[in-house]
Amino acid sequence: MTARSWRFASTYVIMPRENVDTDQIIPARFLTTTDRQGLGPHAFHDWRYRPDGSKNPDFVLNRLESRGAQVLVAGNNFGCGSSREHAVWALAGAGFRAVISSEFADIFRGNALVNGLLPIEVAPEILARLIANDAAGEHVVVDLETQTLTLPDGDEVRFPIPTFSRYSLLNDTDEMTFLLDASPSIGA
Amino acid sequence: MSTTRPRTLFEKLWDRHVVRAETDATPAVLYVDLHLVHEVTSAQAFTELRQRGLHVRAPQRTVDTMDHSTPTTRGGFAALPIRDEKTASRVAQVEQLARNCEEFGIALLSLGDRRQGIVHVIGPELGLTQPGMIVVCGDSHTSTHGAFGALAFGIGTSQVAHVLASQCVLQTRPKTLEVRVDGELAPGVTAKDVILAICARLGVGGATGHVIEYRGSVIGALSIEERMTVCNMSIEAGARAGMIAPDETTFAYLEGRPHAPKGDAWEAAVADWRTLATDEGAAFDRSIVIDGSGIAPMITYGTNPGMGMSIDEPVPDPCRLADRAERENAERALRYMGVTAGKPLAGTPVDVVFVGSCTNSRISDLRDAASVMRGRRVADGVRVLVVPGSQQVKRQAEEEGLDRVFLAAGAEWRESGCSMCIAMNGDQLAPGQLAVSTSNRNFEGRQGSGGRTLLASPLTAAAAAVTGVITDPRTLIAGGSL
Ligand code: SF4
Questions:
Q1: For residue B82, what pLDDT is reported?
Q2: Of B33, B297, B380, B415, which has the most beta carbons under 10 Å away?
Q3: Which of B245, B16, B40 is nearest to B154 (CA)?
Q4: Distance CA B186, CA B170 (A)
Q5: Which DSSP symbol is given to B126?
Q6: Among B43, B208, B443, whose Cβ lies nearest the Cβ of A103?
């Protein structure tokens, strides 16, 4: 078994803040790594931990019911700010496979897609419904093939994903191969 | 390609660089003229090249520097007293960059080089950035280079690998947004105030999916350095890039720079660059108009760059926001910042003033800051850091005696780098400290965990430095001492 399944059910974590910037997702002081791995424990570090290093019990990721959730539901304009791909690596490292919001910042969206973290854009009403819901124990189902998100009440919504990214993820090919194929026609 | 349809600057640049057109199934493949690289976002890209057995496609179009995590104290890393875990990982990262450049045959303007500096300061000053180019860098403030009439945008590390290996980048076509700033700026109002006013108008995500072209009489009258300040913060409104059509100001800045074309090639280049401006009648997807004459010195009060206001206004009350999520967001921001809705910020004591970053660390910015600080003293208890954007800026400032103005006032005069803009190199705020900064981001903890940032122009920052409180710089100008 090689390829990951692109249909999965998961509990989800609600972070209703808007404009969550990449400095919050992974503070700059953790960017001195030369690896893609190992950033998961630092995701949302300054919200997750108090200045003395202890866990902030009020922060959603520290709650028991957040364990094992592969889907993050966040307020509008998620991932704004810096281009650091480390933000995506940190979210993936923390176990997330999808983020649901009503809008994503451009660079974050691109970074997420190349790494197989699905940026699921839904209408503001759908986002509001998810946020208003008590997430504990509830599941959503994400299906990349059909581009559908099934809400806890069974309603299905379609989400946009660039055709090329969807194809690349489902077929486990990558953009580098496509680019190398497209670029020999030009001189350096 | 022959076309008679009027096109925007953006469309002309896009058309020139298409290697393979966008289709329903695939993004466009665009050729990249200049790829700037720094230590923080490149290591994993070089690793990918190594793993796949790829080489760098166009080393001559690739320029590396060290800026984000490097010390701005004299002597570089070697002079740092403690080699703690954090310093060690920074050293490892810059050493890795040096090895990568060596192995892949790329020019590196490393720490200690006369040309070293913040990537977005040195590209332009070396003449590497030119009109009509596509410029990319693993850094969101690549939009700075749009000031030259280049299409310049930030990319993630996977894309850094793409560009290294193919000299091309995949892009879906963005929409265009015209931001026209008419009128004339009042005294004491600078390019930084213009872009903070634009960000306040658009909001932090207001330009997502768009490339901005800045136009209008105010933009045309700005120097190249000021235009860079404006384009730099395009990303703070969510824009993929910001650009300004090249004109005589652009050509005059570029002529004679080390990497600018020379002789006949220069004449040919200028003739070509003159054709780039947006055609009469070309359509933008969206347009906004701002009255430049009405802009006052700006300052931010919240935790994103869109939360800005005129310095003489009271902090906006979140109550006026109809949307609940937006209101809660604004309330949370004010709580974090410790500011009170309905009250002006003027008179609030500050702990730190930072003059620097790719937004405002060029020679004209330092001259602005020095004009306020000359003959004055930094207020008691305030720490002031002045960090030039490059070694070249630093040398010029020293030739002009600006360093002595800062030092005599009691400010710190540093080596070039990103410094307290991103707080990776040890220059940072302590939790709770309030800073006026000329940088571009006031996100929670951006300048150090728990630190609070107010973004403003070099004039406003310097005014806070010498008074110790948030101060409208026009009051110091009106006193006749500027
Ligand atoms: S000065 Fe700040 S914004 Fe500019 S490149 Fe450096 S870290 Fe990024």
A1: 61
A2: B297
A3: B40
A4: 42
A5: T
A6: B208
- Are B208 and A105 an interchain contact pair (Cβ–Cβ within 8 Å)? yes
Q: What is the pLDDT of residues A15-47, one digit of tens each?
A: 999 999 999 999 999 999 999 999 999 999 999
Q: Whose CA is nearest to atom 6 of ligand 1?
A: B418
The tokens 């410094």 sit on which residue? B419
Which residues from B are below 8 Å from A185, CB to CB? 19
- pTM across the whole model: 0.96
From A24, A106, A183, residue closest to B208, measured CB to CB: A106
Residue-level pLDDT at B1 = 52
pLDDT of B3 > 60? The answer is no
Cβ of B440 below 6 Å from ligand 1: yes
Using the mean position of ligand 1's atoms as its centre, give its distance from the Cα of residue B214 in Å.
22
- B115-172 pLDDT, tens digit per residue, is 999 999 999 999 999 999 999 999 999 999 999 999 999 999 999 999 999 999 999 9
In a domain, A183, yes or no: yes
Indicate the burial class of B1 (C-beta count within 10 angstroms; 0-12, 13-18, 19 or more).
Answer: exposed
Point out the residue among B24, B204, B450 whose CB comes nearest to the CB of A19.
B204
A2 occurs within a structural domain: no
Count the domains in chain A: 1
CATH of the domain at A111: 3.20.19.10
Choose one of B137, B231, B440 to mutate for the ligand 1 pocket test, by most ligand atoms within 8 angstroms of C-beta: B440
Percent of chain A with pLDDT over 70: 96
Parallel, antiparallel, or unpaired for β A156-158 and B383-386? unpaired
- Report the candidate in B394, B342, B329 with the shortest Cα–Cα distance to residue B125: B394
From B209's Cα to the closest Cα of chain A, the distance in A is 6
Grouping H, G, I as helix, E, B as strand and the rest as coil, residue A178 is: helix
Cβ–Cβ < 8 Å for A107, A83: yes
Tokens of B390: 């490059």
Render B211-272 in DSSP notation, one character per residue. EEEEESHHHHHS-HHHHHHHHHGGGGGT-SEEE----HHHHHHHTT-TTS--HHHHHHHHHH
Q: How far is the CA of B67 from the centre of ligand 1 (A)?
A: 8
Neighboring chain A residues of B329 at a CB cutoff of 8 Å: 17-19, 75
Residue A147 lies in a domain: yes
Q: Find the B241 Cα to ligand 1 centroid distance in Å.
A: 16
Q: What is the span of the domain harbouring residue A48? A: 7-187
Give B267-295 pLDDT, tens digit per residue.
Answer: 999 999 999 999 999 999 999 999 999 99
Given a cut of 70, whether residue B2 has pLDDT beyond it is no
Residue owning the nearest CA to atom 4 of ligand 1:
B358
Q: In chain B, what residues touch A27 (CB-CB under 8 Å)?
A: 445, 449
Could you identify the residue written with the tokens 């393979």?
A: B20
